[in-house]
Design brief:
The protein contains 8 helices and 2 strands; from the N terminus they run ααββαααααα. The chain has about 210 residues and is mainly alpha-helical. α3 (about 50-75) packs parallel to α5 (about 115-125). The model is unreliable at about 1-35 (pLDDT under 50).
Length: about 210
């Protein structure tokens, strides 16, 4: 009886192993979603993050250029008018670079701003005077901070030389635009996201730093 039971268990175990092997052979291997979005170009691998950067910069221009036009007629502050004109003109140049880079790399670009950006445009289109000045400066400053982080992150890690060049140029544009906006004196820095909290230093680094100061 026990001998028969052991034999049945042995056979059952064999069936389970065989079934598992069959499943492994039949089922397709799992694919890393990020890796599946890579494509090879003459300037190196192009990732989803690289494509997303081009799209985000394109959309930034699609709402900031019209916003600059609004500033010419709706702003009360002369400096806001000047800043609007500067940012509008420079975004026209950056948009050309964006479209040229996207065409070279085969990336499809949008032709309209995203829903948030469209809402900001509608908000400013209904304002004038000091209310416009405040919203124009702070909406654009917040948006530039977000795209600056994306540009820096992609520039630090991209494997594509065209994207490295594009991100470097984009960083220069965005840094200038943040400085323009801050020159109006209207930026509410308390409403901007705080910088990330630094990670605690590892014990070894802390010990070395302590010895260096003793």
């Amino acid at each position: 009886m026990h001998r028969l039971l052991r034999g049945e268990l042995f056979m059952l175990g064999g069936f389970v192993v065989a079934a598992a092997v069959t499943i492994v052979l039949v089922m397709p291997p799992s694919i890393d979603p990020a890796a599946a979005q890579w494509s090879q170009t003459s300037s190196g691998p192009l990732t989803a993050a690289d494509r997303d950067l081009l799209i985000k910069v394109r959309q930034a221009g699609l709402w900031e250029m019209p916003a600059g036009e609004y500033a010419q007629t709706r702003a009360e502050s002369q400096r806001v008018k000047e800043v609007g004109k500067l940012i509008m003109g420079e975004h026209m140049d950056l948009d050309l670079i964006t479209r040229q880079t996207a065409k070279k790399l085969g990336v499809a670009l949008p032709d309209e701003p995203n829903p948030d950006q469209q809402r900001w445009m509608a908000q400013m289109a209904a304002e004038s005077g000091p209310a416009f000045d405040k919203d124009y400066v702070n909406l654009l400053r917040a948006a530039h901070g977000k795209v600056f982080s994306t540009l820096a992150s992609v520039r630090a890690g991209t494997r594509n030389s065209d994207i490295r060049k594009f991100a470097g140029e984009g960083i220069n544009y965005v840094m200038r635009h943040m400085a323009y906006l801050e020159s109006t004196g209207l930026v509410d820095h308390s409403q901007l996201p705080e910088p990330p909290t630094p990670a605690p230093a590892p014990p070894v680094a802390m010990a070395m730093e302590k010895r260096r100061h003793t």
